[in-house]
Amino acid sequence: MANANITSTLGISVAGGALSEDLLALVAGVWVDDNLHLPDMFTLRFRDPDRLVLAKAQITIGAEIKLSVHALQESAPRDLLIAEVTALEIEVDSTGTFTVVRGYDAAHRMLRGTRSMTYQQSTISDIVKKVAQRNNIRTAKIDSTSTVHDLVSQANQTDWDFLRALADSVGYHLAVENKTLAFTKPVDASTAPSGSDGTQAQALELGSDLLRLRTAVTAAGQVPSVEVRGWDDASQRAVSATAPVQTKTAEIGAKPADLAKSFGAQPWVVTHVPHRTQATAEAAAKALAERVAGTFAELEGVCRGNPNLHAGSAVALSNLGAPFDGKYTLSRVRHVFDNDSGYTTLISVTGQQDRSMLGLSGGSGSERHGIVTGVVTDIKDPDKLGRVKVRLPWMHDDFATTWSRVIQAGAGSNRGAMIIPEVNDEVLVAFDHGAIDAPYVLGGLYSAKNLPYAAQSESVDAGAGQVSRRAMVSRTGHSLELLEAAAQNGIWLQTGDGKLKVSMDAGNGPVITVHSDGKVVVEAKESVDITAQNGSVKITGGDKIALSARSGITLDGGTGDVNVKGVKVALQGTAEATLSAAKVGVKGQAATEITGGAALTLQAALVKIN
Length: 610
What we know:
With 610 residues, the protein is mostly beta strands. Among the domains are: 8-106, Phage tail proteins - horseshoe like beta roll fold, CATH 2.30.300.10; 108-184, 3-Layer(bab) Sandwich (Phage tail protein beta-alpha-beta fold), CATH 3.55.50.10; 219-293, no CATH class; 371-444, CATH 2.40.50.230; 460-516.
């Protein structure tokens, strides 16, 4: 690099071939930005009066660029970044014509387009591997996680945002290093070398390695501990996990918990995420505690060019004084090469918080506030709780929720309604605290395609403007209707084929009608009473009527007559038959016959024969 007062040599290769010396001489500036929370990027700026650099270097969109630094004291160069060209620019001003090449590491592929899909019975690390593989990124640096999740949803998110959210949920570090995805536990600041004798590349001393510095220790936002709360609907109990506020990103002469105690701070309780298991709550509490504590120590500085520094590496800083001397984990590192300053490295420490514009303004995209429509796809709940799975076609044709609990009127232990929507029913869905993996079905919806039941009457009285019909109808048409119209007022219960009906007509009577195309059976363990207080009781048999009882039958006409009529009338007692009244008449229209099997006795004060 021309006129660069540096002790390290910059190497640039394009598609595997080193840039020629004449092109290296045209380099006016190089920036390599390494960030814990974003894809790493580079910028190459060439002085290019003849606009020939791109053609001579064979730099095109998608070309692989490798940037490395060979420090004089080291035997081999150290790679800063392997990336892909994503933008080409020309700048023309009073100082000349410049060609600018920009690009990102392979992580940028995961920011292109959004996906909606689900991952079932998987650990977080399993999901990370799948996402990396479909982006053609190697997966050699993935630390395993142990909790198996029933379902994790990627809800219209980029792969990068999805993986970042997963990393945040367990407190992991996400990056692409030399074409390999790293999903690892954060580097502990305590691993930085001790001492500042200059023999350690990651031991920095103010006045020697550090050229400029701003560092701060703050109690703002610090609390003694965090608590994550949720609800386990399976066991019907609250879920709670607590973690002390402590960080591994800074090991200095102050501690976050001690700073919090200075002001009597209360614990920070988090309730906006619907954690349903103790394991997920504990992981979230630890990650949150680290994220909160990591903001207590901040650092921004410029040091002499050092290719050994990268985002996530631990460094030891000295000669700053208390409480700032100590060890830090770098959040962002920027390597800068220019003709004025040579090679410098900018460093910053911000803990697990993303201070970039994207991080401050964007979101994971997985939250779903408000209600949405869906279509039921599965009702065979393995736990028999009346849950359903719902497809969300507005998000993706194949995206379906986990098992969703259905709102039921009066639901409780061994009580309440049980009305489960059918497969292909359109339903209204809400999400617990906005979490896409915690859905609830609020109810079904009618539409121009899915019309209401063809009722006995209109649902709204056109004249009065009041609801005149309420109904409950099953898939096969079994119905219960509550009618309150002038023409029909009452309750109607019937089967879908109309063969069984019970009506309670309050408008035309009132009258109760029981109809069956088959039999009607009335059965009671005790007694059956049929009473008409002011009218008659009529029993009509289309063929015959049979009355039977084990102990006896009594017919009582009260103050009226008892009439028994038939083509033939037979009165028979197996032991005895008695006919008794103040006056008894036996009369035959044609003939009368009285027969005694063994004897016949006629007895009275006066007996007349003929």
